[in-house]
């Protein structure tokens, strides 16, 4: 019965996520900082696919196609990871193009319109200010280590939690935002942030992971494979390993 309950819970969340990822806009937290919602000064289709990435000075500015990353840098350098997560989500919408901006969220098919350099720069800021603990490239490495199984990935990065009252190991989704972790502590799982897609199914996140920005060369892949083979499971878990979102 416990296994069936988990299966039912996962199926319910699967349909819920796919539905919301296609129809419901991303919700932003209230803010009094109007610059949080600044838009690019020129149309996305006219912008060059290049970025200026300057982080050596506190006064240096970082831009993606005329979209400033200063607010993201400010949040990350101050360890305001919840605000940094919201700003990252906003940047993805802006960089995905005019249609995504008008809609208020990104279709997974629009990720291809975000330049390789733009995603690398955002990812680089996350890694720089988290000692390589957070970022899309970190999340992709974990996803590959669990054989691209999103259920295992969600558990690994802490987006699902164990139900303590169960006789066997069962997991459910964390409630946003109170049950997610926003402080840089030793207990926070690697790859926990940015959330971006934790509440919206897996299609968008899958498109980000498969974006050319995060394609690794053969040496990195071989090294990753070796590390994966050295890993050993901590213990057996009672969840359906064949389940995919």
Write down how many β-strands occur, each being a DSSP E stretch of 2 or more residues. Answer: 5
Instruction: Please name the CATH architecture of the largest domain.
Output: Orthogonal Bundle
Give the tally of structural domains: 2
Q: From N to C, what is the helix and strand string?
A: HEEEHHHHHHEEHH
**Describe the biggest sheet?**
3 strands, antiparallel
CATH topology category name of the largest domain: Arc Repressor Mutant, subunit A
Tally of helical segments: 9
What topology, given as strand order, has the largest sheet? 1-2-3
Helix content range of the residues, please? 40-55%
What do these coordinates show?
The structure is a single chain. The protein has 2 domains: 2-21 and 136-230, Gun4-like (Arc Repressor Mutant, subunit A), CATH 1.10.10; 27-128, Serine Threonine Protein Phosphatase 5, Tetratricopeptide repeat (Alpha Horseshoe), CATH 1.25.40. It has a 3-stranded antiparallel β-sheet, covered by helices on one side. A two-stranded antiparallel sheet has the order 4-5. 42% of the residues lie in helices and 5% in strands. The protein contains 9 helices and 5 strands, in the order αβββααααααββαα. The protein is mostly helical and 245 residues long. β2 and β3 form a beta hairpin. The model is unreliable at 1-60 and 231-245 (pLDDT under 50). It is globular, with a radius of gyration of 18 Å. This is GUN4-like domain-containing protein. Residues 67-212 form the GUN4-like domain. It holds the Pfam family GUN4. It comes from Buddleja alternifolia. InterPro entries: GUN4-like, GUN4-like_sf.
